[in-house]
Structure formats: structure tokens, C-alpha cells
Design a protein that fits this description.
With 273 residues, this protein is of the alpha/beta class. It has seven helices and 16 strands. One 2-acetamido-2-deoxy-beta-D-glucopyranose binds next to strand 6. Keywords: Disulfide bond, Glycoprotein, Signal.
Length: 273
């Protein structure tokens, strides 16, 4: 029975971790409301304001009767609108291109006139977006949960740990007997179990409480006077100072061929609006 309960809890925590860990890919509509169309310098000014990351995607919207999206592999083909050996061709009129590799990506149209009049896009894709540190989930009271009538027990439990903004407390208890009230007050009110103000009330029996602010947080049980017998918790939450981490992907060296460099240099002479 107890094993089953712990197993269930581990599942809950794993699910929460996955939910909290979700990613932040961006979908870009090429050319914004104009879509994928010929307009001199349009794409130059469109991409200039953006940073593309592995995991992001591009959406190309266009009239498929006159146009397509042809991905070419180098700056030479890009500069001269040479679509004779494309890397990929998209032609649905609404194409989603996933950026799965870092490096330069070149897109033109196989409609030569449109390409020559500026319908082309080259972008630099960099490493994946950083993922913010995930908060930990602390099971309050460990395997005993929020059921121990001894304030020393929660005092020790809390003293041994370091809590940061973003971390979570998981309270597990019998909801017929017990509840979780976060109180806003002084140490004295916490000690005497007579709070003057409440910040939040939880009463499901399985409550996840996110620590969103640094400082001292007080939690007590008030439902049946269990605070007086020791069901109370004080946690000191530290501000978030941990550095942002990057997911561990193999770093690929981005090599520029001489023609890539020339093309990039030439581009600096384009007019800016
Ligand atoms: C286009 O590229 C192909 C192969 O990459 C090459 O054989 C051909 O000569 C190129 N055409 C022009 C006009 O540059
Ligand atoms: C691009 O990614 C989306 C969502 O991640 C996926 O549904 C779609 O099949 C992918 N497209 C291609 C061409 O791989
Ligand atoms: C907590 O109390 C302080 C002053 O005692 C007050 O400024 C603050 O708004 C209170 N916060 C909540 C959530 O009640």
C-alpha cells in the first residue's frame, strides 16, 4: 500500500517535471503578413531583427501557382538563383520548415524572375534556445508527508534544504483532518498559530505550491487545530541566482566557405531602410 502510494507520487512528480520543462520553440512567419513574395530587400529587413535557434520553424505562405520554396545548399546557388540542385523543395503554398541544424540556411524560389527580384532568404541558425532552470519539487516531510505532529520534525526537514524561487513544495495529507494555509505575518504569529492574514489556502490533500517569491514563507494547518500540535513549516526561499543552462547538444562548427564570406561582405552594401 505504502509502496503503491510512493510510486504514485513519483509519477506525479515526474509528470510535473515534464510539464515544467516544456520547451520554447518559436514559429516565424516569413515576411510577416506579406508572406513569401518578391519584394526587394524584404527578407533582409525581416530577418535582421531576429535570432533563429535550432528547434524553431519557418512558415512560408505563398501562391503555389507561381512560386515555391527551394532550399539550396550554398551561397553561390543563393546569389545566382541557381535551383538546379536543391537541398529541398516545398510547394504546398503553406510550408513549415523545421530548423533542425545550426548553420546557414538558404531559401530561394525556383521562379527565376521572382528570385532575381529579391525573393530569397538566408538565415543563420544558432544553438537551441536556453531552457530556464527547472524548479525542484520537494515532498514536504518526505515519506511521512504533511501529517507529523511535531514542529521539530518540519524544522529539521526545512533546515537541511536549500529552497530557491521556482522550486515547489508538495503537501500530501488527509484532507478530512488537515489543510495547508500559507500565512503572511510574523514569526510570533507562526509560533502562536494565530495568524492575522492568509496568503493562500490549499485543501485537496495533494497540493503543489510554487515558491514564487524570495524570503520566509510560513505554512500551517488550521482546520482542526493541528498547528498547535506542531503541524507547521517555515521555509527560507532564496532568490534565483543559478545561471541559465543550455541543453547539451553537440556543437557543430560553422564553417564559412570563401564564397559565403564574400556574399556576406557584399550584403553589407545593401541599402538599409
Ligand atoms: C547551377 O548549379 C549547377 C550544380 O550546382 C551547375 O552545374 C550549373 O552550372 C549552375 N548553373 C549556373 C547558371 O551557374
Ligand atoms: C516539423 O515539426 C512539427 C512539430 O514538431 C512536426 O509536426 C512536423 O512533421 C515537422 N515537419 C517536418 C517536415 O519534419
Ligand atoms: C503581507 O503583509 C504585508 C505587510 O504586513 C503586506 O504589505 C502584504 O501585502 C501582505 N501580502 C499578502 C499576500 O497578504
Amino acid at each position: 500500500m505504502a509502496i503503491k502510494k510512493i510510486f504514485g507520487l513519483v509519477l506525479v512528480i515526474m509528470t510535473l517535471t515534464v510539464l515544467l520543462a516544456c520547451c520554447s520553440a518559436t514559429v516565424y512567419k516569413v515576411g510577416d503578413s506579406d508572406g513569401w513574395t518578391a519584394k526587394d530587400d524584404k527578407y533582409y529587413s525581416w530577418y535582421e531583427r531576429k535570432e533563429f535557434h535550432v528547434g524553431d520553424s519557418l512558415v512560408f505562405e505563398y501562391d503555389r501557382n507561381v512560386n515555391d520554396v527551394t532550399q539550396v545548399s550554398g551561397a553561390w546557388a543563393y546569389e545566382f538563383c541557381n535551383f538546379s540542385s536543391p537541398k529541398a523543395v516545398y510547394n504546398t503554398g503553406h510550408d513549415v520548415v523545421n530548423l533542425t541544424q545550426p548553420g546557414y540556411h538558404y531559401f530561394i524560389t525556383s521562379n527565376h524572375d521572382l528570385c532575381a527580384s529579391g525573393q530569397k532568404l538566408d538565415i543563420l541558425v544558432v544553438r537551441p534556445r536556453p531552457i530556464l532552470p527547472l524548479g525542484k519539487v520537494f515532498m514536504v516531510g518526505d515519506s511521512k508527508g504533511w501529517n507529523v505532529y511535531n514542529s521539530d520534525y518540519y524544522y529539521k526537514w526545512s533546515e537541511e534544504k536549500q529552497f530557491y524561487v521556482g522550486d515547489n513544495l508538495f503537501f500530501e495529507y488527509n484532507k478530512d483532518l488537515n489543510d495547508v494555509i500559507e500565512i503572511n505575518g510574523t514569526d510570533l504569529e507562526f509560533k502562536s498559530c494565530h495568524p492575522t492574514s492568509r496568503v493562500a489556502v490549499y485543501n485537496t490533500g495533494h497540493d503543489l505550491v510554487k515558491l514564487t517569491k524570495p524570503g520566509i514563507h510560513y505554512f500551517v494547518s488550521l482546520k482542526t487545530g493541528l498547528c498547535e500540535v506542531g503541524l507547521k513549516l517555515r521555509v527560507m526561499v532564496q532568490p534565483l541566482t543559478k545561471t541559465v543552462t543550455f541543453p547539451n547538444v553537440p556543437k557543430k562548427k560553422m564553417k564559412l566557405t570563401p564564397i559565403d564570406r564574400l556574399s556576406r561582405w557584399l550584403r553589407t552594401f545593401r541599402p538599409h531602410h
